[in-house]
Design a protein that fits this description.
Elements lengths: L3 E4 L3 H13 L3 E7 L13 E6 L10 H10 L4 E3 L9 H9 L3 E2 L4 H8 L1 H11 L14 H11 L3 E9 L2 E6 L5 H16 L4 E5 L5 E9 L5 E8 L3 E2 L2 E2 L1 E4 L6 H17 L4 E9 L5 E7 L6 H8 L3 H9 L16 E8 L1 E2 L5 E2 L2 E2 L2 E3 L6 E4 L7 E2 L6 E9 L2 H14 L1 E3 L5 H8 L2 H5 L6 H8 L5
Parallel strand pairs: 1-2, 1-4, 2-3, 4-5
Antiparallel strand pairs: 6-7, 6-8, 9-10, 9-14, 11-12, 13-16, 14-15, 16-23, 17-18, 19-22, 20-24, 21-23
Helix pairs in contact: 3-4, 5-8, 11-12
The structure holds ligand MV4.
């Protein structure tokens, strides 16, 4: 087992990792930027090392400085959290070369699943459902036309190295195919340094359902059931819940088991999430695999009782998974609302500045993951998420009622937050009925904007 881990992240996830490490009896080192000098989470760490100026490229993305901090503080492992270097195979490889354990998958497993063309190939072998489409990168316009006619328009052109909605083109008809492939290739080269693109069937209306998985270094991998993340805006999730509502048990189990098989076949150690779209017939199609712990992992912790962050540290240290698949079961329902320092009435304009009022809710079944305290100054350099409010209930209706109560109790100011939007969504009939698709929040906001 490790004795000291370095946390290459900030904010709520840094605090979440500190708490998990402390429970395991491990010391923690946080690296931080000059903008985070007064970060409240740093007080909870055993050591803190400044690694540069506020711009992420000068601090949280500086592999050399993070490794130097690990060496000078004698940390034996690095947890990357999410964002920043979490999905950098290069960072994982440098950690290995420097004899510090990367808390996450091997660079090989990360590369295999991070490239969406090889991930699709792995998924096919594991029996994980994918969209009909190309098996290799598009080399010639003629193959693209052939595949597009096979699967039928509309199709979508995607970058193998893309993700989170970057480098995609929807193509409605053959005459637009070539130009879309070319522009997607160009965008992929400049954004990711890899111009490989592929095509698959485009699905217009769908729900976003994902499967939480975790693997160890002994060839074991299990799933921790699923979450629905359909409530999103511009590829930023707003609400996540689990288990995903209205997925029949037999389909859920089949998809979850296929996701665990994919992770197992990739020799994957650590937490992973397989993302899917689900159509109105409850058919599933894998989109991509996220090779890191996710923002919404608490939803799964609340319904399974598995501490995903602790488990990911243990498997990185070489421990076998502490639970077997047959020991994982779901209790009740959990919902997470992301509280962002943004004004939903002004196109989600970021609200940097001092938090003068911070009164979080509490009570039975309420969990807050946040690094914020009264007087905290939100820097303008980073993500605007300042808290995650997670509630657990015996069923979905109880969880919704508990979320409404907790949201109404949560006071943050003077800057605006997403709390009023969440209160509105918790009352939407379409949310209650799960009569939703990945575009419903944007449609609601277009038809009736929030007040500022
Ligand atoms: C798709 C799709 C429809 N059909 N693929 C967006 C981010 C990346 N993870 C994949 N994405 C999509 N892939 C096919 N074949 C629609 C999206 C998509 C989306 C997916 C999940 C959550 C929100 C989304 C918003 C717009 C588009």
């Amino acid at each position: 087992m490790f004795s000291r881990i370095l946390i290459a992240n900030r904010g709520e996830i840094a605090l979440r990792i500190i708490r998990a490490a402390r429970e395991l009896g491990l010391e923690t080192v946080c690296v931080y930027s000059e903008a985070d000098r007064d970060g409240p989470w740093l007080e909870q760490a055993d050591h803190a090392v400044c690694i540069g100026s506020p711009a992420p490229l000068d601090s949280y993305l500086r592999i050399d400085r993070i490794i130097a901090a690990a060496e000078t503080t004698k940390a034996d492992a690095i947890h990357p959290g999410y964002g920043f270097l979490a999905e950098s195979a290069e960072f994982a490889a440098v950690c290995r070369d420097c004899h510090v354990e990367f808390i996450g998958p091997s660079p090989e497993a990360m590369a295999l699943l991070g490239d969406k063309i090889s991930c699709r190939r792995m998924a096919k072998q594991a029996g994980t459902p994918i969209f009909p489409g190309s098996e290799d990168a598009i080399e010639e316009e003629s193959e693209a036309i052939e595949i597009a006619h096979e699967i039928g328009f509309p199709v979508i052109v995607k970058a193998a190295a893309g993700g989170g909605g970057r480098g995609m083109r929807v193509v409605e008809a053959e005459e637009d195919l070539q130009s879309s492939i070319q522009s997607a290739q160009q965008e992929a080269v400049s954004a990711f340094g890899n111009g490989a693109v592929y095509i698959e069937k485009f699905l217009e209306k769908a729900r976003h359902v994902e499967v939480q998985c975790i693997g160890d270094k002994h060839g074991q991998a299990i799933h921790l059931y699923n979450r629905d993340c359909t409530s999103q805006r511009r590829h930023q999730k707003l609400i996540e819940e689990g288990p995903a509502p209205h997925v029949p048990d037999d389909i859920r189990d089949r998809v979850c088991e296929s996701a665990a098989a994919l992770i197992r076949n990739a020799n994957y150690a650590g937490a992973a999430t397989c993302e899917f779209l689900m159509d109105r017939n409850n058919d599933f199609y894998m989109l991509e695999v996220n090779t890191r712990v996710q923002v919404e992992h608490p939803v799964t912790e609340m319904i399974t009782g598995v501490d995903i962050v602790k488990e990911s540290i243990l498997v990185a240290a070489g421990e076998p998974l502490s639970i077997r698949q047959e020991d994982v079961s779901i209790t009740g329902h959990a919902i997470e609302c992301r509280i962002n320092a943004e004004d939903p009435g002004r196109d989600f304009m970021p609200q940097a500045g001092v938090v003068e009022t911070y009164r979080p809710p509490g009570g039975y079944g309420v969990r807050i993951d946040s690094h914020v305290i009264t007087g905290y100054r939100i820097p303008s350099n980073y993500d605007s998420m300042i808290a995650k409010l997670i509630v657990h209930g015996r069923d979905r209706n109880e969880a919704i009622a508990r979320m409404k109560s907790a949201l109404s109790e949560f006071k943050i100011g003077p800057g605006k937050t997403t709390i009023p939007l969440h209160l509105r969504l918790m009352d939407e009939p379409c949310f209650h009925a799960m009569d939703v698709d990945i575009h419903y929040v944007e449609r609601l906001l277009d038809s009736a904007p929030m007040e500022s």
